[in-house]
Specification:
The protein is built from 15 helices and 16 strands. It is α+β, with helices and mostly antiparallel strands. It has 3 domains: 288 residues, no CATH class; 114 residues, no CATH class; 60 residues, Arc Repressor Mutant, subunit A, CATH 1.10.10. Helix 5 crosses helix 6. It starts with a strand and ends with a helix. 35% of the residues are buried.
């Protein structure tokens, strides 16, 4: 807004897709009967001792490496002390400090409005345990489900002072971060199920002020749209308070998706209120160079790198590349089709248009598609060699999608091959001219648009099998010769 600057720090929590919880062997899953995946450790019962989940630690380290972070050679878990019903121990096992978290000092590139990119600095990537979940009961009152308590939770925090300066950048940061987590396969990132949660810290200040304003933390944002709308609303709310002479309170606020407004939840704690100290039940973690090198070798090609390769080596446009890399399974399908000999641009066009439409209409994931990458390559080759037309190819694709049969088999069985016989095409063209003397005369008089009508008539006579390019050339030759 004119006269005001917005600053947004991002705290993103991602539940890791491990089989068991962070410090016990209880299984990890979404939903289910409340309080059925619990044990003395995740309930904080006296005498129980935590044992760290190595897989969870490695997933956090992989994420940190992907974000360009430095990895801590020594790292310890801390106790974050606060009292809330969803925290059975009275403290949360987390990490604290600047260089103690598993990763620190990274960055993430996001697209900017000028078509270039903007760097968002990452302060730390650390590991902690999730809390339980408060449930509002139908008959009144509340209950607590501890199934989620102890699930490994990765937190990614941006640097201060914040690099994000508007709601659109906040949303784009989350979009790009989620994509990296999906490519790394460290989380399913389902915001609607709470496995990816974002808490922006928003503050505003006059444009001529170097001092940052009081921040508020926004919770209950369960979609990219909610993140953008929530940040926009909160910035506007704070500006309205300051312009009226009021004071912004440092607090945690919830987001009401129906009303598109925030509401106060509790006063925001300061760091010292948590009384962090090293957890005496967990020994320090030590990481050697060989271990870190092994993790680095496991890093896949990340979305930004993949998108650039598609443009530089496969000749795809920026928008085509963006659509392909927007989902790791979609990109994997494309990669397999190209590796089987498919022409990159043709494969991309069919995927991003007709195949995507069929998948959307049937609510089918690309991994469940009956059209395999090999079948799509086969379809594009049938078109490029002139055996079938583009129109016929659409019908064949739909048939293949429904039945799982290969395009060549469908074409052979149904006789949908494209006709490129000069003699037969000329017969159809002469008939079209004879049956439509009006359009034919208009073309001779210089009305080029009527040629399309005659081409359509030929395609109807041939039941869609005539080679469109040959039909057009033949019609033009016959008409101009008279």
């Amino acid at each position: 807004m004119p006269g005001w600057l917005t600053s947004v720090g991002m705290e993103v929590h991602a539940e890791l897709n491990t089989r068991s919880k962070m410090f016990c062997r209880c299984s990890v899953a979404f939903g289910g009967e409340p309080n059925t995946r619990v044990c003395p450790v995740c309930l904080g019962l006296p005498g129980s001792l935590p044992v760290p989940n190595r897989a969870a630690i490695e997933k956090v380290q992989l994420t940190a490496l992907a974000l360009g972070c430095k990895l801590a050679r020594t790292s310890v878990f801390h106790r974050k002390n606060y009292f809330y019903p969803d925290l059975p121990k009275g403290y949360q096992i987390s990490q604290y400090g600047e260089e103690n978290p598993l990763g620190f000092g990274g960055k993430l590139e996001i697209p900017s409005k000028d078509g270039k990119s903007k760097t968002i600095r990452i302060r730390r990537v650390h590991l902690e345990e999730d809390t339980g979940k408060l449930i509002h009961l139908p008959g009144g009152g509340s209950g607590v489900d501890y199934n989620r308590s102890g699930v490994p939770l990765m937190e990614i925090v941006t640097e201060f002072p914040p690099d994000i300066e508007c709601a659109e950048e906040a949303k784009e940061y989350l979009v790009q971060l989620r994509l990296i987590l999906l490519y790394l396969d460290v989380s399913d990132c389902k915001m609607e199920e709470g496995s990816l949660r974002c808490e922006p810290n928003i503050s505003v200040r006059p444009v001529d002020s170097a001092e940052f304003g009081v921040k508020t933390e926004l919770k209950n944002l369960n979609s990219f749209r909610s993140v953008q709308l929530g940040v926009e609303h909160e910035a506007e709310r704070q500006i309205a308070i300051l312009e009226s002479g009021g004071t912004v309170a440092q607090e945690t606020r919830g987001w009401n998706e129906e009303r598109l407004e925030s509401f106060p939840q509790r006063s925001k704690e300061f760091e010292q209120d948590y009384r962090y100290f090293p957890d005496p039940d967990l020994v320090p973690m030590e990481f050697g160079e060989d271990e870190i090198s092994g993790l680095r070798a496991r890093l896949p090609e990340l979305p930004l790198e993949k998108s650039r390769r598609y443009g530089e080596k496969l000749g795809l446009g920026a928008e085509d590349a963006r659509m392909l890399v927007a989902d790791p399974h979609w990109a994997a399908y494309f990669e397999e089709a190209v590796s089987l000999g498919g022409e990159a641009k043709a494969i991309c066009n069919w995927m991003n248009s007709d195949l995507a439409k069929l998948l959307n209409e049937t609510d089918t994931d690309i991994r469940q598609s009956r059209v395999s990458p090999a079948s799509l390559v086969e379809l594009t080759e049938l078109v490029s060699t002139g055996r079938i037309s583009g129109k016929t190819a659409k019908e064949v694709l739909a048939d293949s999608f429904r039945t799982g049969r290969g395009p060549a088999e469908i074409v052979a069985e149904t006789g949908r091959t494209q006709v490129s016989d000069h003699t037969l095409i000329e017969v159809w063209c002469k008939r079209a001219i004879d049956e439509n003397p009006g359009p034919a005369e208009k073309f001779r008089a210089g009305q080029e648009g009527t040629l399309g009508f005659l081409v359509g008539h030929v395609m109807k006579l041939s039941e869609g099998r005539a080679n469109p390019r040959m039909v057009q050339d033949t019609l033009r030759r016959l008409l101009e010769a008279e």
